[in-house]
Amino acid sequence: MNTSQKDEKLFESIRLLDSYLQNNDEKIIDVLRPDVSFGHSNGWIQNFEDFKKDFLSKKVIYKEIQQTELSEIKRYKKTASIRRKIKVSGTYKNQDFEMKLALLEIWIKKNAAWKLWSRQSVEIKP
């Protein structure tokens, strides 16, 4: 995929999101908008407060998050739509899991910083 220099800041935010998730780092809230919406592959939808509470309680602990594909970038003014695939493993309620997910993420740029506004993940079955 042909990406430009101006996409670098956006990719940095995406890498930070994955890294913060993988490391259960509280700094994750720095890359989220207060009106963020997370749609999980199990149909579960979280707003900012739900996400923060569950994240801090370590309801889900991620061991590894690896981007395997970046298939689409669309931009409109200060909004970017990203489609990508990740391989993720971790623990949920003491059960280990490993899955491949297709993500649609909507990022909004404000004051030169990209923040996640919306994310939907769908499990890719083998």
Automatic annotation (TrEMBL):
Pfam families reported for this sequence: DUF4440
Domain DUF4440 residues, every copy: 15-116
Domain of life: Bacteria
Xref: InterPro entries: DUF4440 (IPR027843), NTF2-like_dom_sf (IPR032710)
Name of this protein: DUF4440 domain-containing protein
